């Protein structure tokens, strides 16, 4: 689906379900959207992603989007969860997914994966959220880090 079709589908689903649309960004381009409803609690109604993207970009965008959706659904009672945590930690999952996938890819995919990881690491869009989230996973593990975020809305201490 091209970008125009993606936005039309997004509008149609929002109108049909009376939901709210959050457009997620992968780098500088909108590659994915998620449709939410928020009453009585957040639910994911639909997700869409542009077609024709390289496999690693598609997968890392999906990993990031699914993590952001999980955080919104699991942390809905926490009103003050910061975008630094949600956006930054969603990029931690994208980075981890790329690590896993690059091990079995071609030389070209390994280079593309390294580039995508570098883009995540150096992006100012995610602030300290990515680096603190990555350190938390390395220190506490993924499950414990997610449990801490779900309970507190913040990343666990890494010092």
Description:
- The protein has 159 residues and is α+β, with helices and mostly antiparallel strands.
- It has one domain (3-152).
- It has six helices and three strands; from the N terminus they run αβββααααα.
- Strands 1-2-3 form a three-stranded antiparallel β-sheet, with helices on both faces.
- Strand 2 and strand 3 (43-49) form a beta hairpin.
- The protein is flat.
In summary, what is this structure?
Helix content is 60%, strand content 14%. With 159 residues, the protein is an alpha+beta fold.
**Main β sheet profile:** 3 strands, antiparallel
Categorize the overall geometry.
Answer: flat
Radius of gyration computed on alpha carbons:
16 Å
Summed up, the helix count is 6
How far the N terminus sits from the C terminus, by CA atoms, comes to 45 Å
Task: Give the fraction of residues assigned to helices.
Answer: 55-70%
Mean pLDDT: 80
List the uncertain runs. Answer: 19-29
Strand content: 5-15%
| DSSP E strands, number | 3
Strand line-up in the sheet with most strands = 1-2-3
- Report the order of strands and helices: HEEEHHHHH
How many structural domains does the protein architecture include? Answer: 1
The secondary structure category is: alpha+beta
